[in-house]
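Below is a typical protein record.
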Amino acid sequence: MEVPGKKLQAGPSTADTTYCQPCEQDDEILPAEAFCTVCKEFFCSKCASLHRKQKISRSHNLLDKSNMPTSISGHEDNHGYTEPCKTHPEESIKYFCSAHQALICGHCAVQNHRSCHADVISDISKAFKDEQEYGDVIKTIARLFEDIDLCASDVKKNVDVVAKLGENEVYKLRRYREEVNKYFEEREQALLKLIEKTKNMDEELLESLKPKYTNLKSKLEEINVKLAAQENNMIQLFIETKKAKKLLEGLQNDFADIKKDNVIHHYEFRKDPTTERLIASDTGLGTLENIVTEPHKIASASESDHSIKGLTVLGDGTRETMEISKPTVGQATVDLTKLRFTQAMGIPMKSPTDNMPCCLTSMLKLTGSRLLIADCTNNKVKVVDMQTNSLVSQISVRGQPWDICHLPGDRVAVTMSNTGVQFLATGGQLAIGDHFKVNGDCRGIAYHKERLIVSFLSGKVAVLNMNGHVIRQIERDGNGKELCKCPVYLTLVCEDSTDFIYKSDDCSNTITKLDMNLNIIKTFQDPALEGPRSITALGDQLLISGYRSNNIMILDLSTGQMTQLIGMKEGIIFPMFAYCSPQQGKLLVTEVFNNSLKLFNTIE
């Protein structure tokens, strides 16, 4: 047994044993009580205390006897510490801080982990290979290998999909181009045939007139010869002159018929506005739209047919829109109550293909002199030229058209009674567009900022989006009173930069003003108006047809007063719709089951 404080004999292996190394240099051998991780020296308790007090070493980390290594060689080199510390590259990683889950060197332990418990990696790593953490890492690596292989397989598949998708879309584009080419070729041939047909008709007409006026001229020459022959015989000259006078009356009538027949078709080729916009557009034929797909998945071309649609789609995928001009109160216009009306010859509206008497329920002014008219009983929309007062074209629709309103881009929307709303293109020839169904018997219609305001025979008024989804609707006012019993027509009017809806109620004989949230603002009524149907706005006046009162009324929005424009005295019977064009000096009225448009010329 050794006595504490006494010197121990230094053996040949003292450099590798746990003795105090500073004391050993003074030939004093004392057992080590601490180990400095920075200086890598063992200290006895006295040297350890001094080491902690010195300025140069007071920040060093000293491991106590229970945590210090058993020998210098075992601590430093036998475990093969070769991983350099990222913070202190000159030092090797030798410790693991469990509190921060960090690999650290001796300098890190002193500077940032003095209050932490640092384990010596060589001590805690002996059985690490058999522990769960190592097994979990190995399993994660194996799973990641599998995932990478699956991803590589998906990438390979998607390479094929990308190629097929490109081929498919190019095929659809070229097929659509062929359809467009075919359409324009057919349109060209149709126009050429029409020109040729019109030209032949005019030529045949003119050729038929030649023998007529030649024969007329011969008869005149014959009369002239007879008169010249009797110049010296007054009695016979008198007789021949009287005979000639009667003959001349007939010849003059024949000549008038020739002049009347000498009318040819003056026509010109007019470019289609829709085609003009197409040529000027950057999105002709269609656009390529990006389709959002799930991560790591690209839909194959067979999964969805995203055909190129489009001549009305812009580059960003949105539809072209423009604000529809609305009648504005206060705009300069003619005071209709000061006009006089004279009835003119009506415009025939029944075509050879109509199976029923015409019931013309709506009129809408298009560009130029065209007027669009709904024929409810024959399921047609017809076009009248107001310059020639003639029916020029028509198109059949699936259902009974009732009311019509303008849409952006040379289009209109038509309510189709029980079948919904039908869109038509009106830029050139009438063409059928999209269609959506509604819940109920729809009647009046107006357009406002990408919304449709629609009235229903049940009394409901609804605001729909352009796909037919209801945004808001109302059937009763705030007091629970029925909003309207039979709202068959409505129109939109701008008053002091604010838009309002005016609707007619056939049952209650009223005109109701609503705001755009369908709140009732005001109601108008007059004993002279019964069964109000159509409402057409002209400046600060509303032109209203009185179905049961057999008249056309004017509502002055500035005063709220109603005045009769024309009535039974002028031959108005059960009017459905009234349209007035002061610029063209015309008032047109449709009547129930009347095959003609009633036409009145206006005089100021």
About this structure: Residues 14-126 form a domain with the Double Stranded RNA Binding Domain fold (CATH 3.30.160.60). The first strand starts at residue 34 and ends at 36. The radius of gyration is 50 Å.
